[in-house]
Amino acid sequence: xxxxxxxxxxxxxxxxxxxxxxxxxxxxxxxxxxxxxxxxxxxxxxxxxxxxxxxxxxxxxxxxxxxxxxxxxxxxxxxxxxxxxxxxxxxxxxxxxxxxxxxxxxxxxxxxxxxxxxxxxxxxxxxxxxxxxxxxxxxxxxxxxxxxxxxxxxxxxxxxxxxxxxxxxxxxxxxxxxxxxxxxxxxxxxxxxxxxxxxxxxxxxxxxxxxxxxxxxxxxxxxxxxxxxxxxxxxxxxxxxxxxxxxxxxxxxxxxxxxxxxxxxxxxxxxxxxxxxxxxxxxxxxxxxxxxxxxxxxxxxxxxxxxxxxxxxxxxxxxxxxxxxxxxxxxxxxxxxxxxxxxxxxxxxxxxxxxxxxxxxxxxxxxxxxxxxxxxxxxxxxxxxxxxxxxxxxxxxxxxxxxxxxxxxxxxxxxxxxxxxxxxxxxxxxxxxxxxx
Amino acid sequence: xxxxxxxxxxxxxxxxxxxxxxxxxxxxxxxxxxxxxxxxxxxxxxxxxxxxxxxxxxxxxxxxxxxxxxxxxxxxxxxxxxxxxxxxxxxxxxxxxxxxxxxxxxxxxxxxxxxxxxxxxxxxxxxxxxxxxxxxxxxxxxxxxxxxxxxxxxxxxxxxxxxxxxxxxxxxxxxxxxxxxxxxxxxxxxxxxxxxxxxxxxxxxxxxxxxxxxxxxxxxxxxxxxxxxxxxxxxxxxxxxxxxxxxxxxxxxxxxxxxxxxxxxxxxxxxxxxxxxxxxxxxxxxxxxxxxxxxxxxxxxxxxxxxxxxxxxxxxxxxxxxxxxxxxxxxxxxxxxxxxxxxxxxxxxxxxxxxxxxxxxxxxxxxxxxxxxxxxxxxxxxxxxxxxxxxxxxxxxxxxxxxxxxxxxxxxxxxxxxxxxxxxxxxxxxxxxxxxxxxxxxxxxxxxxxxxxxxxxxxxxxxxxxxxxxxxxxxxxxxxxxxxxxxxxxxxxxxxxxxxxxxxxxxxxxxxxxxxxxxxxxxxxxxxxxxxxxxxxxxxxxxxxxxxxxxxxxxxxxxxxxxxxxxxxxxxxxxxxxxxxxxxxxxxxxxxxxxxxxxxxxxxxxxxxxxxxxxxxxxxxxxxxxxxxxxxxxxxxxxxxxxxxxxxxxxxxxxxxxxxxxxxxxxxxxxxxxxxxxxxxxxxxxxxxxxxxxxxxxxxxxxxxxxxxxxxxxxxxxxxxxxxxxxxxxxxxxxxxxxxxxxxxxxxxxxxxxxxxxxxx
Lengths: 437, 761
Description:
Chain A has eleven helices and eleven strands. Chain A has 437 residues and is α/β, with parallel strands linked by helices. Chain B has four domains: 2-90, Cytochrome c-like domain (Cytochrome Bc1 Complex, Chain D, domain 2), CATH 1.10.760.10; 108-119 and 297-408, no CATH class; 128-286, Jelly Rolls (Sandwich); 485-696, no CATH class. The two termini of chain B are 54 Å apart. Chain B is α+β, with helices and mostly antiparallel strands. In chain B, helix 10 packs parallel to helix 12 (390-402) and helix 14 (418-430) packs parallel to helix 16.
């Protein structure tokens, strides 16, 4: 347990760690007044499919009722869009789980490889960039929409393992990007420079005391050198003071210290990652993000819900195992609560220099590796969109006729003013973007 | 002139000086602006000085003083201010106040943190432990097929099995042990495989890590290169850059598996600083385990090397910022491994108490002496006082400790107690902090007598850290960095490429290692050995039968043995002191004068470019050099440089033996004026080596250079007899290099404190 409470980001830095330079001031953190409203995008991933009858509204159109799983979204109902009938049609090497996650945002096949699940053909990484990175690159290529990080890849309970079951974001073919699952590491990434300055600022005074104390016992020549040294300490103090550390629009969130990065820590980690993500968006660090809960075949044991069995194990239980179905509803409802929490926090922050709230300019796409756990189907992926970032017509439950999800990603690209003709596998982009606006 | 010519010859050297020399050279040889700018000082012998004066002085009328008078005035000048002894008397060098050099900072931090873990002895440099398994399914180790030692991390199993009796479809291999890195700096590693592999370096291995499932180590340790997923049936190449400290062993592990891929292959290469890519292999690998090393990789501004050795005299803003960044980096590295270092588990009830104890110990080891109660309050207790979270309190305390002058300035006040002695011993022998044995000796009164100090100094010299420090000395002494980016004319020297240069450098380093680390450690062998260490590639290039041991094995070969003389004729030295196509007797001569004979040279009075095309095309290189340096002002130094450089003319620009230069027979012979005042014939490199191995001036030059490299202060600052003492013990030891280093270390450890006492009286 102890190794997991230690901040793993430091371990990851390993021996080749280069400390972030602390003297150059932080890049411009607040966005200037952009001519158009900012658009933001978040992909939230959860594994093992859903329980369809408790997820999909019975009605189609604007007049619909949430079922149990989506009930936490009630406050955002008019800003929610459910998309039934959108399917991941990517086939080829790899088992359903691997394709479920690794082909989800990439919408293309996997390369042949050495990673095998079940008796399917072994496979490697995805052949395509993922849609979030495609959008990020598009935004970063324009100075008006570029941000410090472009995108943030966050995880909650993602195991420390790189394989096609744990990666959904790809910078390009064969380029999986690891989500940061350690909130302390995320904090370090976002605010590390600032924190290091604070630590330094707090000791420099004492360093000068020390130099004076030591110097008092020395001869003139040595004392002169230490005086010179003290001068540099003073200069650093004033550099630190003049460095603009107050330019953040929103102060960094206060993280609870010492949260264990293990299964039971997941609820707290989820809250911390959500806070960090919202804060980073508010401060204009990025406009694209992903939040990945565990992994494909994820085995979270949600003891905090009274569910002791692992999530994936439960998802294999047949429909007539009512206890298991009930547990899976609890699990998926809890995921939806995390989504609602994210939406609520985004909605609590007024758009800096603009109108409405962050949520009005952000779309959260909740997606899943599978449609349904016990059949392993990639049809009817439970897509649920919350927020106004893409200008889609929300407040409705839409029904499509088994369309490839490539077209959903096209819709998103087009909504960003990036009119891609196709995305991902060439067979699945026909008919272009889904009509969502 | 008439008056001067008829005057009685002056009897007294001082009188001759004031009559003929003072006007241009000043009362004490300090020089007169516009007439003789340079100070009259040097290391010519009295005889050589007299001869020079007789021939050349006074400049406007060399006949004004004859041989007899020249003798007298030379004797006067020599004792009054010219000779090194006179200079030391007139202007005794002083100890500079110094901070840690960059190397000392990094080494000290590594040992500071290393001191909290039990040490492991370095293992034999023979390869890595390898365990071969057949897999169940994708990569579950099912059946151990073989356990053996592998020398070289390059395997191509094709479509077959890696070892007999194993499935060719599904198998895994784990290689584990330690990496022995001889050099300090940025290293690159490159992993190539069409299959799955993970490369771990400098992690914290624990018993049982990574043995049942191929990737179980990954759960606890971040891989430096993660290429676990094969993708696309092609070789995947991944590269990573890591800063390593030379002379240390690093834990290393390579996990590999093949599952259903068409073919099996894996290769791990590395590139050491200033070297070519090569497959990672023995002698840089050992099956023995090693401990994690805390490596600070922050960039520092280069240390002052204007005196010919790196020393910590520059205290400026850039250095202060670098040490601050380095302190932050170290603090973060410490936090990452805090439970292991402090022994304080995160949820232990006595965690705070243990953390305080850890920090107090850290401070006293960093400061090289016990902590007073006040110090303890300042560096430890106060950090916890503001109710800071424990991790932040630790970070603050570490920053205070590593930014303290008590750490950064290793010998402030030059105390005369046992702790100061221990600190100096470790600094001079290792560039680092005292180890447990030294601390114990200091605490228990075992560092009082010169013998006790010498015993410790000798012990320190047996440590890999001393080997690394000696390596640093030889890097400078052999001008190894000059061979960086060594290139030669491809037409004249086909096959002279990056790999060959790396082999040459390694051959030289191995040769020096063999001489220095055998029992005799005889300085004269460095100069007079008549063999070269060659691998197959070098043997082919130099046209001798391959010793047959492959490219990793270097074997002694006698190649033109009657013409070779240790480092003097090592191909790397010869090639790095040559032009692109031609030799350079001037560069070679300057190198021999300064490094091998330990003599001082003034900068040339005028810079002359050696432009080959401006010479008569029928001249030999020697003839060209003789022509271009024939002026009297040049010959003041070239009388020394040229004979030495010409003696190596039998070796071309890549160090191959030759008898013809530009269609004429090579002439390596000259006569040479030694610093002792003799004139000796030099017929080739073996005469140079014989002179260097026997002449007191050359030997003392070597001692002085080693002293500066180790101590980073002028030798004479420790007393006018410092070099005499060291020379006497060096002779008595049979020219034993490591004992010399130990003597230097011991002498300085004792005398630094004494000289401070004398100064304060």
